[in-house]
Amino acid sequence: MRPARKWSGARTACGAAALALLSLGCPVDDDGGGAGAPPDARPADAGAAADAGALCPGGLAYELLATDWDTGAAVGDVAIAEAGDSANASSTSSSGRGLLCLPEGGGSVVHEHAGALPWIADVDPTAAERVATDGAVFSASLLSPASADELFAQELGQTRDPDAAHIIVDVRAYPGADALAGTQVSLHGAAFAGAYTGGPGAGFAPGDVVGGDDFVLFANVEPGPPEANIEITLPASYEGDCAGPARATVEPGAISYAAFACASNAATSPPTPR
C-alpha cells in the first residue's frame, strides 16, 4: 500500500502539476439554495461561469452566491471587498449573486452583512479557473452570532469566543465536487479549541478526517498570528493531485474559508491511444 501523502500550500504537486480549488460544488435548488446546503461553490446560473476570464480582463473573476447558513436562502446586499484594498469592492444582488475582480494572482475576499459574522475566503487563481470550468461559483454561507452561539453549544459542546477566529477547511474531488473522504486536515501555527467534521444541517462531531459530505471546522482559533498553516493528508488509495491555500486568515470574530481541490490522475491524463 502506498503511504498517505501530505499536502500543504497552493499548487503542491505529487508527480504532476497540481490543481487548486477554493470552493465546493453543491447543487443549487430552484429557489437559490436549500436548507442544510453547505457553504460551497454551486453550479452557476446559465452562462455565469462560461468565460470567467472575459469578466475581468487581465484579472481574476471571483463569482459568488451568498446564502444564509441556517436556511440556505439567498442573501442580497452582502458587501464584498478585496482584503487590503477596500476600494476594490462590490456587493451581492437580491439573488445573492456577486462578482469581484481580483488581481491575477488572487487574494482574500472579505464578506460582510448586517447581523452576520464576517466571512473571509482566500482565493487561489488556479482554484477560480477550476470553479469556472466546472460550471460553478464560489459561495459564502452567512451565520449570525446567535446562531453561531447555538451551533457551538449544541453541536460542538463549546462556548464560542467572540474574539476568536473559526476556520473551515474543505477538500473536494473534481470534476463533481465530491468530498474526498478519508482526508485528514491539520492546522499549524495557531492554537484552537477543537476540530470537528460536519456541515450545515448535517451536524458536527469531533474529528479532523473528512467523511461523507463533510468539511472540517477548527473552532475558537486563538488570535495572534494573522494566518494559520493548513496541511492535508490524502487517503493512501487516492491517485491524484490536490492544491489549495497554504494558509488561512486568522481574523478575530470571523469565519475563514479555505478549500482544496483534488483531481484524479484519470481526470488529468490524456486518453490512451488505441
Give me the oligomer status: single chain
Give the termini distance in whole angstroms: 30 Å
Helical fraction: 10-25%
Major pleated sheet: 11 strands, mixed
- Element string (H = helix, E = strand): EEHEEEEEEHEHEEEEEEEEEEH
Q: Which geometry do the CA atoms define?
A: globular
The total number of structural domains is 1
Q: State Rg.
A: 17 Å
Secondary structural class: mainly beta
β-strand number: 19
Quickly count the helices: 4
Overall mean pLDDT stands at: 80
Overview of this structure, please?
The chain has about 270 residues and is mainly beta. The protein has one domain (about 5-265). It is about 10% helix and about 40% strand. The chain contains 4 helices and 19 strands. Strands 4, 5, 7, 8, 10, 11, 13, 14, 15, 17 and 19 form an 11-stranded mixed sheet that branches. Strand 13 (about 195-200) and strand 14 form a beta hairpin.
